[in-house]
Specification:
Length: 347
C-alpha cells in the first residue's frame, strides 16, 4: 500500500511510519526535513513546508494519506486542494486519516463518554492564533473540513489523549518516570481519583496504519486505560515499575499547589487542567477497530530503558526543579499536613 504521511519523523508520525514500513508498505514522508532527517532510509522523503509549499506532492498518487500535523483549517484545505480532493472525492491522496485531539470534545463531559459527545466550537472561525482556549475548536474545524473535502466515508478522525512512549519530545510522561526512578521524596499533587488516560505512540501508530489498510471511516478516541483510572493509579503504576526502595510519594493538595503558584507546573496532573474530564473516555470504538494498548507497565519500562540507553536533558519548563520540589515538600510538611492526604481529591 502507498502511504503518504504529512509529518512523520518527530513522535506520533515517527511511529506511524515505523509501523507502516515494518508491514511492508511504500511510505512517503512530507515534512520540512528538520527533525530526524536520517530516519527511515527506505521511505521516500519529500521536503516542503505545508504552510506555503506543497509542490513536492504534485504528480504523485497514494492509497491513503495520514495527516498528523494540521492545526488550522487552511492547512487541511490546502493539502486537500493540492491532492485534488473535493466534494467527497479523495483525489490523489486516497483514504484520509486526520490526527486530531481529545481536546476536540466540549467540556464538561460525563465519565465514559463516547465519540458522539458534543464537540468544541470556535468563537472566531477565521483565527490564525492558536491558544489553549481555541485549540480544541480548531481541531474540530479541521476534522469537519477534512470530512467535507474527502468525504465522510473516506475519512477517519483519530482523537488521541496524552501520547507517551520513547522519543516523546513533550517529556510529560518521561518526567514522572525519571523522577520516580530517581527515588527519594517525590511531590505528587492530589486528587488521586482525577481521571487520566494515555496512549502509547507505538500502539497508536500500528492501529492507524490498520485504519488506512482497511479504509476505516469515522471518529475514534485513542485512549487507555478505560475509566475509572486516576492520576494516583498512574503514579502507582510508575512506582511499581521503576521506583527504588527509598521512594515516597508525598501527596499535596490542589489548593496548596495553587497557593504556591504551581497550578500548571506538574505535567499530566489533571487537577491543574480545567478540561480534565476528557481524560475519561470510552475506548470501545477504537478497540473494535484494532487498537490494542500494551500494558502500561511495559510502556513505563521502555521509556525508562530508552532514557538509560540515551539520556536526554530534562526539559526545564516541564515539572519541578529539584530545589523547588524539596522546598514545596518542606513547606507542606511544616504546615502540619499529613504526608498522605486523607482525601482522594484534596489534601
Amino acid at each position: 500500500m502507498r502511504l503518504l504521511i504529512i509529518g512523520g519523523t518527530a513522535f506520533v508520525g515517527r511511529y506511524i511510519a515505523e509501523a507502516a514500513l515494518a508491514d511492508g508498505h511504500e511510505v512517503t514522508l512530507f515534512n520540512r526535513g528538520r527533525t530526524n532527517p536520517d530516519l527511515f532510509p527506505r521511505a521516500t522523503h519529500l521536503t516542503g513546508d505545508r504552510n506555503d509549499d506543497l509542490s513536492a506532492l504534485a504528480g504523485r498518487e497514494w492509497d491513503a494519506t495520514i495527516d498528523v500535523c494540521a492545526y488550522f483549517p487552511r492547512q487541511v484545505h490546502e493539502l486537500a486542494r493540492t491532492l485534488g480532493a473535493q466534494g467527497g472525492h479523495t483525489g490523489r491522496g486516497g483514504h484520509h486519516i486526520y490526527v486530531s485531539s481529545m481536546s476536540a470534545y466540549k467540556t464538561p463531559v460525563a465519565r465514559g463518554f463516547t465519540e458522539d459527545a458534543p464537540l468544541a466550537e470556535l468563537d472566531d472561525p477565521d483565527t490564525e492564533a492558536m491558544t489553549n482556549e481555541n485549540y480544541g475548536g480548531l481541531k474540530v474545524a479541521c476534522e469537519r473540513l477534512a470530512a467535507r473535502m474527502y468525504g465522510e466515508s473516506n475519512t477517519a478522525i483519530v482523537r488521541p489523549t496524552y501520547v507517551i512512549g520513547p522519543h516523546d519530545r513533550s517529556y510529560r510522561m518521561t518526567y514522572w518516570v525519571e523522577r520516580i526512578a530517581a527515588g527519594g521524596a517525590v511531590l505528587a499533587a492530589a486528587g488521586k481519583a482525577d481521571p487520566i488516560q494515555v496512549i502509547d505512540a507505538r500502539d497508536m501508530g500500528s492501529w492507524i496504519v490498520g485504519l488506512a489498510v482497511d479504509n476505516v471511516s469515522g471518529a475514534f478516541s485513542a485512549v487507555s486505560p478505560p475509566p475509572p483510572f486516576g492520576f494516583g493509579d498512574l503514579l502507582d503504576a510508575i512506582s511499581q515499575t521503576v521506583a527504588p526502595p527509598d521512594t515516597e510519594l508525598i501527596w499535596v493538595s490542589k489548593e496548596f499547589m495553587v497557593a504556591q503558584g504551581e497550578a500548571e507546573t506538574l505535567p499530566l496532573w489533571p487537577g491543574g487542567d480545567s478540561e480534565s474530564d476528557i481524560n475519561a473516555a470510552d475506548p470501545a470504538a477504537a478497540a473494535a477497530t484494532g487498537l490494542k494498548p500494551r500494558p502500561l507497565s511495559q510502556t513505563i519500562s521502555e521509556i525508562h530503558a530508552a532514557e538509560l540507553a540515551n539520556p536526554r536533558p530534562a526539559r526545564p519548563e516541564v515539572g519541578l526543579k529539584p530545589e523547588r520540589e524539596a522546598e514545596l515538600i518542606s513547606l507542606w510538611l511544616e504546615s502540619g499536613k499529613s504526608r498522605e492526604p486523607g482525601s482522594s481529591s484534596s489534601g
